[in-house]
Design goal:
The chain is an alpha+beta fold. The protein folds into 2 domains: 46 residues, Macrophage Migration Inhibitory Factor, CATH 3.30.429; 31 residues, no CATH class. Helices cover 38% and strands 18% of the residues. It contains 2 helices and 2 strands; from the N terminus they run E-H-E-H. Strands 1-2 form a two-stranded parallel sheet. The N and C termini lie far apart (37 Å).
Length: 77
């Protein structure tokens, strides 16, 4: 039962979010072998000014060892 949470800066349309969720679902199904009914995708908008405190510190920096794709930026640099 894969559940994917995407946190991104605010500003994308509902159409873009639906398309992203559809494409993520396809990839998850292909790689994991799960059916569409098993996959869920959540998209959370984050204001740019909140990114470091609400996403980078708790979800990225605090779980660095669990990231299979690390970001190429450092908000503290």
């Amino acid at each position: 039962m894969p559940h994917v949470i995407v946190k991104m800066l605010s500003g994308r349309s509902d159409k873009q979010k639906k398309h992203l969720a559809e494409e993520i679902t396809k990839v998850v199904m292909r790689i994991t072998g799960n059916g569409e009914e098993a996959v869920s995708v959540s998209i959370e908008d984050v204001a740019q000014g909140d990114w470091t405190e609400k996403v980078y510190k708790p979800d990225i920096a605090a779980h660095w060892e669990n990231l299979y794709k690390k970001p190429g930026y450092d908000p503290f640099a």
